[in-house]
Amino acid sequence: MFYLVSDKGRVVGVEPSTTHPVSRGGLCVKGWNAFGFVHHPDRLTTPLIRRDGELQPASWDEALNLVVEKLRNVQERHGADAVMFASSAKATNEENYLLMKLARAVFGTNNIDHCARLCHSSTVTGLAETFGSGAMTNSISCIDQTDVIFVIGSNTTEQHPLIGSRILNAVRNGTSLIVADNRRIRLARHAELHLRHTNGSDVALLLGMMHVIIRDGLADHDFITTRTENFAALAAAVADWTPERAAVATGLEAVEITTAAHLYAGAECAMIFYSMGITQHSHGVDNVRCIADLAMLTGNVGRPGTGVNPLRGQNNVQGGCDMGALPDLYSGYQKVSDPQQRQKFARAWGIEELPTTPGLPLTRAMNAASVGLLHGMFIMGENPMLSDPDQGHARTTLENLDLLVVQDIFLTETAALADIVLPAACYAEKDGTFTNTERRIQRLRKTVEPPGEACADWQIICDIAERAGYQGMRYSSPAEVMDEIATLTPIYGGIAYDRLDTHGLQWPCPDRSHPGTPLLHVERFTRGLGHFSPVIHRLSAELPDDEYPLVLTTGRTYFHWHTGSMTRRTHLLDREEPRSFIELHPDDAARLEVRDRDMLLVSSRRGNVQTEARVTTMVIPGVVFMPFHFAEGAANALTNNVLDPESSIPEFKVCAVRVEKLP
Amino acid sequence: MRVLTTDLLDLFITRLANTWEVRLPILLPDGTRVIGSPDDGTPALHGGTVLSKPTAAFFPQQETLFTATKGEFQEPQAPDRLLFVLGFTPRDLACLRFIDRFFADGWRDNIYFRQRRNAVVAGLSGYSGPGGSLLPPAGGNCDLELFWDGTLWLAIPYSDSGIKIIAELPDTAPESAMELFRQATLTPPDENENLIKRASELLRADRVPDSFWAEIGDRCIACTGCNLACPTCTCFGVQDWRSATTVERSRMWDSCQLDGFMREASGHNPLGTEALRTRRRIHHKLAADPEKWGEISCFVCGRCDSVCPTGIGILAVTREMVARFE
Ligand code: SF4
Ligand code: SF4
Questions:
Q1: Among B304, B307, B318, which residue has the most ligand 1 atoms within 8 Å of its CB, making it the best to mutate?
Q2: Residues of A in contact with B225 (CB under 8 A)
Q3: A508 prior amide bond cis, ω within 30
Q4: ipTM of the complex
Q5: b/e per residue A89-128 (b: at least 16 CB within 10 A)
Q6: Fewer CB atoms inside 10 A, N or C side of chain B?
Q7: HSE value, Cβ hemisphere, 13 Å, CA-based, for A321
Q8: How far apart are CA A145 and CA B154, in angstroms?
Q9: Read out DSSP for A566-597?
Q10: What is the distance in angstroms between the CA of the first residue and the CA of the last residue of chain A?
């Protein structure tokens, strides 16, 4: 998507690729500033070991020997599954693959996961069940070929700005846009229909739409008969969901639901885009199921300009999943529980036996650690102190671990709690590949050397393996790691660096002559027939009451990325959004006698934070919004650590809070 | 006037690189052309405007202003070798002339001139535009210009260093090429230039209503690309990086499409909407700069239209403006 400009060993700027099919010469503000943190003086330049309560510089030898010794020690005392490996959606495919190999082959545990747990685990579960593949079905270029775009739970122009821009351009060229999100996001201002349903009522909205589609004869029966199964169960599940009933559950007018259904189902080609507004609920998987059902019901799968398109947020969260940085899956979504797959990997890795039971999801590992069932964590490039729900819980959990190793580029809030910190190279300082949201595997090229003694994640992981007595992780370059991935991962079977030079390849790409796959499920679904998966509407876990009368929903801002370890160290980005804030509706502000930019105390059952008021009609009355990027005024001090039972995703999108004006 | 054949091009560049720090349009693996050093890719002189602006050689996206360590204050040294920058289209040369004047005015920006002073600026023109289209010769504003006649480059010097640099090239320019060059110099201004002038008049006559800017601004996703890509945008932000012992001050390209660009310390912003900011960006080039400098500061290089993800670069906006309000 972009090139870095370097001068005498320093990165001094960014240049967009003019030929890339996604970015097409443009970038978002984070892209244009992507070089800004690379040489920041806060970069970690040497390993650190906690001595006398303080993190002190150490040599690589000392640090890595200690990592191995302590991991082994925890495992000897408490069993192989007493340690957890957290991989990173910011690291390369090769690094994700290697960390999962390290966890499984070297340390004998399936306790490996990454932050997709917090963003799209509901997608992986929901779409695997309905379609057989938990990824974006279509390509971004399909936006130019569609008649209707339905965006639900995604602030696309802010979180995926180039995709959002493409949607805006499509709307100018005549495509209809439906936005379902109760914040008045930019896309909503350009939408034909803006549905401001209450937080957590997506299932009711989608069931209502499906009811109307079946009732009004808009279902695609040819598609349903030839391509899907279990339609009767879906029809039965939506039979009671009249638009009137859905209206009550969603706070919308019945006619809005009917109009949305007619608009979506009446189109020749319609695309659905969704993101965290769908996945981050205690019923996130159900939300995803409904979306898949809606698309199949109208035959909007397997053709250009259609599809179910979950937008992946981090540069390599698709790749992190593809590489098997997941507790139950090897690379390419091959099941740990399948003895044949297990044997295949064991043989290739030269290991007698790989662990058989699926490991813990990251969120459950944190819970296990909090009750003393897990004792060591190795975290690569993640910052759970800011990204996990219920910060108080995250902090005590991390503090109570016998061993916390953090490998990162900055001393994040999490690294500051670690026993051992390993300094990593950032993206500009290493080779590798990333896989974008449309399944496009692309090259990352090294531009400058890492600072001080910092080292690429893949090299650190291999070094640890070697010190742990495993000789099966000796590679001269990431290209060689990819060759191994290709032999073990059918969907990456045809991937090799020499094929990725221009714009990469979209998986599945099973062999070296395969051109890649822009569209999934064309003649058949990955699982064979598409499976209708009916769901029951469930309420969010914590609803407002007298004590905590407002709904808090959390998310991101355009200028920051996740916990801000990079963007808050990038001058222009931090200048734009320098501090934590809370959006509240003018009606609520008036009732609380709050004016714009007043300091507020926001409390939930988990904790409280101080933050600045932003009085705006972006939100509806009764709902407040906070971004989670900020260590000071951390939204996740408030959020509710309740998990979807199937995907283990936390309910970041709904909890109850109280807001008071600070004197 | 001298001649540079395609066969000689590589040798010519290699020789230049012995003396100068050479920057020229090169081809990257995915087909993107950028201004880079000869080691970074193969030369790609054809194709017209390069998206990465050649003026960045003198005013890079980010650069160190000084480093202060206890008792010591260091400014970056002037470069060991002077820059030779090839790749300015005639429009880019007009942009360079404009910012040269801007940076020299009043407080004179020494940081800019550290790179710019004595650098060699080389233009590209002739039938080397996109798809072989004509870039009319610049006829000046540079040390030398390479004009493609369809089979070879004519090398036209405009300064002493230009003369020196091309001295070794053969001097037998065919008459046909000379004739093409002469004709090309007579090319009238194109439609886009007229468009910009007409839009400028509309703005200066205050004939563009706020509602227009609201509509355009609503499509701005604040990517900042239009400013960062523009060779006549000169605004920069300043940051300090502090470590235990050192402060490093640097500057980086800034953008008036950003909210923080004009935000006051109180938090209030006199340009607090995309509409106001988009108006400002275009107003500055088409109405404010003509007052200050006597000329419109958009030389129609087309970069902002290429980078804007939502299609509101200056040409797109002025086209709409002229269609609606003229
Ligand atoms: S066309 Fe755009 S980028 Fe080029 S000079 Fe004009 S305003 Fe600047
Ligand atoms: S390039 Fe377009 S979207 Fe980006 S800041 Fe400029 S006007 Fe806005």
A1: B304
A2: 16, 26-27, 32
A3: yes
A4: 0.94
A5: bbbbbbbbbbbbbbbbbbbbbbbbbbbbbbbbbbbbbbbb
A6: C
A7: 28
A8: 46
A9: TGGGSHHHHHHS-S-EEEE-HHHHHHHT--TT
A10: 48
For chain A, domains (ranges, CATH) are 1-35 (no CATH), 45-116+316-332+340-468+475-506 (3.40.50.740), 121-311 (3.40.228.10), 550-661 (2.40.40.20)
Residue B81's φ and ψ, nearest 5 degrees, are -120, 145
Please report, for chain B, the start and end positions of each structural domain, with discontinuous segments joined by +: 2-184, 191-325
**What does each C-alpha distance from A9 to A34, A581, B251 come to in angstroms?**
16, 38, 18
Q: How far apart are CA B80 and CA A637, in angstroms?
A: 53
CB contact B16 to A (< 8 Å): no
Strands B62-69 and A112-113, sheet pairing: unpaired
Other CB atoms within 10 Å distance of the CB of residue A215:
16
Side-chain half-sphere of A552: how many Cα atoms within 13 Å?
30
Q: What is the mean pLDDT of residues B200-227?
A: 94
| pLDDT tens digits, B151-195 | 999 999 999 999 999 988 887 778 888 888 888 888 888 899 999
Position A522 scores a pLDDT of 92
Over residues A530-554, the pLDDT tens digits come to 999 999 999 988 999 999 999 999 9
Longest dimension (CA), chain B: 67
Residues near A266 by beta carbon (within 8 Å), at least 6 away in sequence: A148, A218
CA dist B43 and B56 (Å) reads: 18
Q: Could you tell me where the beta strands, DSSP code E, fall in B32-157?
A: 33-36, 42-43, 62-69, 72-74, 83-88, 120-126, 144-148, 153-157
Q: How far apart are CA A444 and CA B262, in angstroms?
A: 36
Residue written as tokens 């340390």? Answer: A107
- Chain B, 233 to 292: residues with Cβ < 8 Å from chain A are 237, 239, 241-243, 246, 248, 252, 254-255, 258-260, 267
Question: A627 near A159, Cβ under 8 Å?
Answer: no
- Which residue, A147, A305, A294, A312, is CA-closest to A219? A294
Q: Going by CA atoms, what residue is nearest to atom 8 of ligand 2?
A: B220
Q: State how far the Cα of A275 lies from the Cα of A157, in Å rounded to an integer.
A: 12
Terminal Cα distance for chain B, rounded: 45
DSSP codes joined into one string, A53-98? TEEEE--HHHHHHHHHHHHHHHHHHH-GGGEEEE--TTS-HHHHHH
Place of tokens 């950003």: B258
Structural contact between residues A616 and B272, judged by C-beta atoms closer than 8 angstroms: no
Give chain A positions within 8 Å (CB) of B61: 5, 12-14, 35
